[in-house]
Structures are given as structure tokens and as C-alpha cells.
Design brief:
four-stranded antiparallel beta sheet, 8 strands
Amino acid sequence: MPFAGKFGDAEENRAVDYLPSNADSTQVAKVQDQLPGGETTDLVLVYHRAEGLTAADRATAAEQVGKVAGAHDLTAKPRGVPSKDGSTLMYPVASNEPGIDEEKRNDFVADIRDTVRDEGGLSADVGGPGAFQADQGKVFDSLDGPLLYTTVAVVAVLLILIYRSPILWLIPLVAAGVANMISMAAAYGAHEWFGTTISGQTGGIMTILVFGAGTDYALLLVSRYREELRRIERPYDAMLAALRGCGPAVLASSGTVAAGLFCLLAADLNSSRGMGPMGAIGVLSALVAMMTLLPALLVVVGRKAFWPLIPAYGSEPKQRRSLFAAMGSSAGRRPLAVLAGGAVLLGALALGSLNMPGSLKDGDVFTDKPESIAATETLAAAYPDRSSQPIAVIAPTGKADQAVAKAESVKGVESVQRGRSGGGWTEIAVTAKDAPETAGETATIHALRAGLDSEGAHVGGPSAQVLDLEDTNARDTKIVVPLVLVSVLLILIALLRSLVAPLILVAAVVAVWGAALGIGGLVFGPVFGFEGVDPSLPLLSFVFLVALGVDYGIFLMHRMRENGLAGADPVTAALSALRTTGGVIASAGLVLAATFSVLMNMPMVFLVEMGFVIAVGVLLDTFLVRTYLVTSASVLLRRKVWWPGGLSKEPAGAMPPPPPPPPAASAEREPAAAR
């Protein structure tokens, strides 16, 4: 508990904590931290009146800016820049007063906002990179409590509906709560010992993973435990049998997710690389709690935990036609048609990704518009031909004069101002003619980098950071995706003793990822009104959907293999596995999708997009891929699905498999097969 309590204090939400480690903009941010005064907090004070500023408005602005200059240590005296239409007056403000301390920066911005106020119809907003980072940090700080409470409430409601017991739902929830505390303590340790980045973003997703994956493992264990209580008298012995039965599947499932997430360590983007071990810590903490604490609690409470639906020793479960028996019968009757139809559907949905909006700009990252974004929009309208956001250049002090001269000669540069020096570096502020994050400014940044590279200079700043994020995500995707596929495939091969079955599962989850992204492309712009997609969404959603989606394939195929080892023919083994695990897989899928959908209530567009894509992907995986496509592929391939393992060979003296029965007869016989 003491270490878990320090988790929030270890969060770092500055831009440099998200940047790619070797990018130009990262080098700039690191050098700025070392310059006298540390990192510069750049703000823009924006005064605006739609019908035009009056003399009184200008006097009010000058008075407020004078108070800001008198109360804080600024790098230069603020000078007002009026817009051509006379509606807006902006004052660029920079200060090293907060340094690199995030809390001090937030307090600095808040204090200036207390001074810069609307007055008599004159709007006054504080914008700029420093204000944007403060608003972003405020959002991240607000995530922890609401995210945790909402997740717990969603999981509690679903467990009550699934178990229909006033007692049983609470036991997995307690175990998940302990797992979350363990994960925060372990994550804090990783941060202290290995320097692993913790951000509000990764912390929130780690909580989702703990409750989502942990509840999935609990559902599988409790379902198997209920089965064993009907045939074993002592709860302790029944739990041992349940752990022996589902333990390998749970271990393989968590191992697959952890391995997939650890592949993110190969990413160059700090935020992605930090999310890998944080997510893996969450999943492994859930595994530890659900395989130790949860079984102990269930055994201590005994059969009463299931009240009022207590599984009595020697009793038989009520036989009734289930939804999954019906699904299995349709997959068993027409496996090729079901498989082909499902593949066509997923492919068609994946085409929606062609409608995905472009990269997300800084002004579009919030679902609600904070003050910094309002200021940016006012500046863009009032100064269409001028950048309100400087491009930061760091040059060796000995070559600073040459760097300034070359920067002034670059097409698209409005002005160049020499700044601080220290540690062998000099800071240069370059103002572009074009507005931030436009094609014109992008071209200027590329031209600066090409022209100043020979001087050993680095080009950074907010717009350059966005470009580096896009480039690095593209590079990371090419490296991490193959690593994830190979690691997941190797674990599945070791668990299932087969090459064919793992390939089917991996192909299925990749198809689900494409379909989920395609659905996102169809709704993000037209329905949600989002102006862009975070560059890291494709990679992170791939890692999560492949790693988490394989879970349900493991649950199903492991039970199918058990049935085959017990002597069942391939078709019976597949359909029986679906009937016995279909309910728990559906419940687990609903819980996992619901926990990720909690992210859709958060005030960050990236989190909403991530929550939507993963929730939709999990639902597709649960109710289409596992129930129909994997089952139909197993029925179609029969023993070949286990090639080259022992189950792929016909047992000695076995009769050839009978032809599939007609549809009506199949529907009548299936309940008997289940019994």
C-alpha cells in the first residue's frame, strides 16, 4: 500500500516524456532542460473582441500584462502584436521560472490565468505550448479517480448480472482491487529502479487491464470450479481440480498478453515503450491475484459463495438448449459457408479504415475545449498568415551565428531571435510565416532541419514534436508488429502442440483488428466529430487486440484439445468445447469490452478512440470469431487443425468419420452429444 500510494506522484506528463528518444525534438527538449533556468514555459496571452478592440480594451490588456510581468520573472518584456483586422491583440510570454517541475508550471499558468481575465465583453485567454501542457496535465490528473470508480462500478454490475448471486460477485472484485494495488506498487518500483516512464495515459490503461483481464481469469476459474463442485465433495479438492484444468489456459493467456505488451519495449516512442511494461505488470498482477488470492477466498467461503444457485455435490447441471449450442450446430452443419461469410464480413469492415481521418493535431486532442485550445483557435482566425508558436532550434554555441544566418535564409521563416546559452548550446526561436501544424509550417520545419544539419543544430518545438511522433510511430509499427506476432505464435505453439491451430488464431485476431479499425474509420469523423486519429492508435490497438483476443482462442482451443485427448472425435470435441466455454467466453468478452469502453467517457480523444476500437474488437472476437469462425475452421479441418501434434493422427483401429448429418437430425442430436 505505501508504494501503491506513490504511483500517482511518479506520473510524468511533459511532452519530453512522450517523445521518441532519439528524435530531433527530443534532443531540443533535453538541452532546454539543461540551459540556465531550465525548460522555458511559452505562453500567449490573447485579447479579443469580435467587433474590434477599443482603446479601453488595449488599456485593460496592457494593465493585466503589466501585472503578469511584475509578478513573474519573464525572459523578455511582453510586446503586443495586433491583428490586421483590429479584433485581437496577442502578447507572447516566456519564462524559466517553473523550470522542469510540472507542478510549478501548472501553478505558474494558473496564476497568470487568475490575472488575465475577461472584462466588459473583452475575452482574455491564455494559450501557447505551456498552457496546453498545463491543460493536458490537468486532464491526466483528473483521470485516476473517475477511471477507477467507473471501472469498478461497471465490473460489479456485470458480475452481479452474470452470477445472479449477492455474494459471489464481490469475491472476484476484491481480488481485482488487490491486484490493482499490487500493479501500482510494482509499476512504481519499475519506475524507480529502471526509469520506466509512467504517464496518466499508461496508468489509466493499466487499471483497465487489471480489472478487465483479472475478471476474465476469474470468470474462467469460477466456471471450472462450479463444474468440479458437482463431482467433487470438498471445495478444497474441487479448487485443485479446477486449477489443474484451467490453470494452463490462464497461464498461457496472461503470458501471451504480457509477451505482446513487452514487445513494445522495442518501440522508440517513450509513451509506447512505457506502456508495454506497465500493461504487462497489470496483467501479471491480475494473474497472481486470481490464481492465489481468489481461489483461497472461494475455498474459505465454500459452496455458500454461489447462493442461491449452489452447485450440490453429485448434481447434474440443468440441460437446456443454449445459444452457443445453436451457434455450434450452424458452424457444424455448414463450416465452409460460415468461415467464408465471416471472412468476407471482416474484410468488408476493414475497408472502413480507408475513411480514417488524418493525424490528430494538438488543438483536437481534447473532447471538451479547454482555454488553451480556445486561444489557439482565436489566434488562427486573427493571424492566418503568422505563427503564434515558435519553432525551437538548439545550435552549438560556436556555430550559433551561422545557424541564425541560415535560419533567416530559409523559405517560410518570418523572424529569428537568439536566446539563452549554456552548456555549449544556444537556443534560437524561429517564427514561421504559416500557422502551426499547417502544410506550410511543416515544410518550413523540414527546410530548417535540412539547412541546419551541417551546423550540428536540432529543430524542435510542439509542431516538430508532432512530426516526430508520426515518423516514429510508423517506424515502431514495422518493428513491433512482427515481434508481437512471433511471440504470440510461439506461446500458442507451445500450449496447443500444433502449428495449424495457432496460425488460425493469430490470423483471426489480425482480421478482428483490421475490422475494428475499419469501424472506427466509419464513425470517428461522421459520428463522433473527431478531426483526427492519434498516430499511435494503430500500433497500440494492434498489440492490445492481438494479445487480448488470443485469450479467448486459448480458452476455446485448450478445452477442445482436452476433449480430443479424452477420446472425442474432432467435430464433437469442437462443438462440445464451444458449448462448455461459450458462456464464460461471452461473459469475459462483455466484461473486457465494458472495461475498455470506460475510456470512452474520458476527456481525451486518444483514450476515446482507443477504448472504442478495443471494445468493438473484443466484441467481434467474442461473438463472431470465437463462436463461428474458429469453431467452423476446426470442424472443417478436423484432425488437421492439430498438425503436426499427436492429436492430428487417427487413433489405431479408428473407423472413418461418418458423413455430417442433415440439418434437422443434427439439431436433434446435439443436446444428446452435450449430455
